[in-house]
Amino acid sequence: MENKQLIDWKTDAWKNHDMVAWYAKRMEENTGSNRLKNRIETELCERFVTGTELLDVGIGTGRASLPLARKGFKLTG
Predict the structure, then answer these.
(1) How many CB atoms within 10 Å of residue 16?
(2) CA-to-CA distance for 41 and 48, rounded, in angstroms?
(3) Side-chain half-sphere of 26: how many Cα atoms within 13 Å?
(4) Pick from 48, 49, 30: which is nearest to 39 by CA?
């Protein structure tokens, strides 16, 4: 697949309501492997931060950032 085709495919996927609903549910899900990912991402950030400000590179849905923001960290994505 060429770059433009891939970009178009990804862009079109987010126009599909069912796709967006599935992805949103999956990111909020805190079971199975997602539970482990959520915990590891959040705990690693919290363990190694040296202040109150964090930069989330590749923030995506904010799955790891939102719990840290609730704890008072200032986040930029």
Answers:
(1) 11
(2) 11
(3) 9
(4) 30
Sign for the pseudo-dihedral over CA of 8, 10, 11, 12: positive
Return the structure tokens found at 76.
Answer: 């930029």
Cα 36 to Cα 10, 12, 19, 31, 44, distances in angstroms: 26, 30, 23, 8, 12
C-alpha span between 47 and 6 (Å, rounded): 37
- pTM for the model stands at 0.55
Read off the pLDDT of each residue in 18-40 and give the average, rounded to a whole number.
78
What is the model's pLDDT at position 72?
92
